[in-house]
Amino acid sequence: MDNLSLAGQANYKKIKDGEPIYKEFQQMAENPMKYNSDLLMKILADNKDTEYGKKYHFEDIHSVEEFQKKVPISRYDDYVDYILRETEGDEKHLLCAYDVMHYNKSSGTMGNPKRLPMSDKAIEIFGKYNNGYMNALLADKLGMDWIDGKCMSITESASYINTLKNGATYGALSVKMVLNFREYLPLLFTSPDEATFPKSGVNTRYLHARFGLMDKNITNAGASFYSFYLELLRYIEGKWELLVKDIESGTIDESIQMPEEVRGSLIKKLQPMPERAAELREIFEQGFEEPFVPKVWPKLRFLAGVGTGGFKSYADKIKSDYTGEQVRQYKTGLSASEGIFSIPFDLDVEDSTFIPDSMFYEFLPLEAGDDFSKIVTLDKVEVGKDYEIITTNLSGFYRYRMRDAVRITGKYKELPTMQFLYRIDQTVSIMGEKTTEVAIRSAAEKTAQELGFELIDFSMYPDLEARPVRYLYFMELGKMPEGLKAKEIRYVLEKKLAEANPSMGQKVAAGICGATKLNILEPETYMLYRDLMIAKGTASGQVKPVSIITNELQRKFFFGLTEYGVEVVK
Question: What pTM was computed for the model?
Answer without folding.
Answer: 0.89
